[in-house]
Amino acid sequence: MPQSLQEALAYSDRWLQIIHGGDVGEAQAKQIIEESKNNFAEHFNRGWLEYRKSVTEAGDWACVEWKGSGAVFRDILGREYIDCLGGYGMMDLGWSHPDVVSAVRAQLQRTPMPSQELIDPLRGVLARLMAEITPGDIQYSFFAASGTEAIEGAIKLAKMYTHKNGFIVAVKAFHGKTMGSLSMMGKSDYRTPPGTLYGGPVYHVPYGDADAVERQLDICAKVGIEIAAVLMEPIQGEAGAIVPPDDFWPRLREITRRYGVLLIADEVQTGMGRTGKLWGVEHWEVVPDILAVAKSLGGGVMPISAFCANAEIWQVMMDPNPFIHTTTTGGGALACSAAIAAINVTLRDRLWEQAAQKGNYLLPRLHALAEKYPHIFNSVTGKGLLIGLHFKDSAIGYKAAAGLFQRGVLVAGTLTSAHTIRIEPPLVITQEQLDQVLDRLTDVIEEIARTHSFD
C-alpha cells in the first residue's frame, strides 16, 4: 500500500467522527462491518478472521463488538451476547465498569501520561496498594502494560537476584509470547516457529507433579546447572483451567526453599479474584517470592500489569542502578487510575467471594451435564469462574463453541486445544445470566448428541 498522508488524515477524521458520534444506523453499521473485515484481512491478520467464530458463525453480518455493560455486550447491529470469555480474564469487573471509567475519565482531564522524570503520584499509590493486597511480605512492584511484560520482568528479576540462569516450568504452560516469556511456554506451537529463544536452560515438567520438579532440581544440582526459579501458574489457564493436586503448591514452596531457588507465581490470569481467592496461590496458603499480575488489574478499561517481590529481592532493582528496568509508557497515570479503581471495586464488592459462590453453583451442574453425556465430555475442571470444558475431540469442541455463539453466548477454545472451552465470565455475571448460559449450553450439548457422528 503506497504511503498517502492525505488519505490517512481523511480516514482518521472520518473515524474520529464515528467515535464521537455514538450509535449508528443499520446501513452504516453494515458498512462498518464490511470495512472492519477488510481492514483485518488486509492490514492486521487474515487468519484471525478465519478462526474467529464471531465471523464464521455470525451469518451474513459478522459480529463487530460495539459496547457493553456488566457481563453483556452488544455488537454494532444491536445483537446481544452474554460474555463467558471475559477477555481471557481481563473483564473480571465486566464491560465498562462505571467506577473504573469514571476514574480514568477524571485522570484524563488532569494528565494522561507522566514525565518519567518527576514523581507521578498514582504510580506510588498503586505500588502501595499492591503491597497491601499481595500475599506475605511482598512490598515492591513495577508496572508495565501486558502479562508477558510482567513475566519478562519476573524472569529478569530472578536472574539478577540469584545470579543464575536456569528455570523450571510446566508442560502446557502459557506465560506470554515475547521472547523471554515464550521460552517459558510449554507449547511447541508457539515455541518452534521463532527458532532460538532464551539462551539459558529451561526445563519443562508435567504440571502438578511436584516429584518431577524435585527430580529436575536434584539433577541440575548434581550436574552443576544453576536454577534461578521455578515459574508456575497457580491454575493453568490456557491449558484449560487445570487445577493441580492440593499438595502441589505447598510442596513447590518447600522444595524451592530447600534447593535455594525462587518461586514465581504467574497470576496474570488467576489474580484479582478469578478463582475464588484474591490470588490463586491463596487456595494453598503459599507465598511466592515473585508474583506477576495483569489482565483484570486494569479493570477491563486500561492495559496494565505488574511484577512484585519482597524488599530483599527488590534490592537489585534499586542498587546500584535504579534504572536497570524501565518502560516509557508502562504504569502511566491513566493505567494506574484504572488499576486503583479496579482494586477498590474488587475489595469493596469482595468479588473473589462472588467468583467462589458462582463457581460453586456452576461446577456441579457442569459436572452433571458431563456425566450425562460421557461420549461428549472428557472432564470439567476449574475453580471459581475459571472453568474448562474438556470434550472428546476438537470437532465437538468447535461445535459447542459455535453453538453457544449462535445462541448468544461468547466462549473460547484455544488454538492449540480446540477440544477445550473455557468458561470465564466477568465475576459480576448475574444469577439469571448464569442460568441462561446453562440452559443454552444444555441445548447445544443435546443438539450435538443428536447430530454428531461419533466414532
Task: Please name the defining characteristics of this protein.
Aspartate Aminotransferase, domain 1; 2 domains; 17 helices; seven-stranded mixed beta sheet; 455 residues; single chain; Aspartate Aminotransferase, domain 2; four-stranded mixed beta sheet; 16% strand
Question: What do these coordinates show?
Answer:
This is Putrescine--2-oxoglutarate aminotransferase. One of its GO terms (biological process) is putrescine catabolic process. Its cofactor is pyridoxal 5'-phosphate. InterPro entries: Aminotrans_3, Aminotrans_3_PPA_site, Class-III_PLP-dep_AT, PyrdxlP-dep_Trfase, PyrdxlP-dep_Trfase_major, PyrdxlP-dep_Trfase_small. Belongs to the class-III pyridoxal-phosphate-dependent aminotransferase family. With 455 residues, the protein is α/β, with parallel strands linked by helices. It folds into two domains: 5-96 and 351-451, Alpha-Beta Complex (Aspartate Aminotransferase, domain 1), CATH 3.90.1150.10; 98-348, 3-Layer(aba) Sandwich (Aspartate Aminotransferase, domain 2), CATH 3.40.640. It has helices at 5-21, 26-43, 46-51, 53-56, 86-89, 98-110, 121-133, 147-162, 179-184, 188-191, 210-223, 248-259, 311-318, 333-348, 351-372, 394-406, 431-451; strands at 65-69, 72-75, 80-83, 140-144, 166-170, 202-205, 227-232, 262-266, 290-293, 305-309, 377-383, 386-391, 409-410, 412-414, 417-423. It has a seven-stranded mixed β-sheet with strand order 4-10-9-8-7-5-6, with helices on both faces. Strands 1-2-3-13 form a four-stranded mixed β-sheet. Helix 6 packs antiparallel against helix 14 (333-348), helix 7 packs parallel to helix 14 and helix 16 crosses helix 17. The longest helix has 22 residues, at 351-372. The chain is globular, with a radius of gyration of 23 Å. The mean pLDDT is 92.
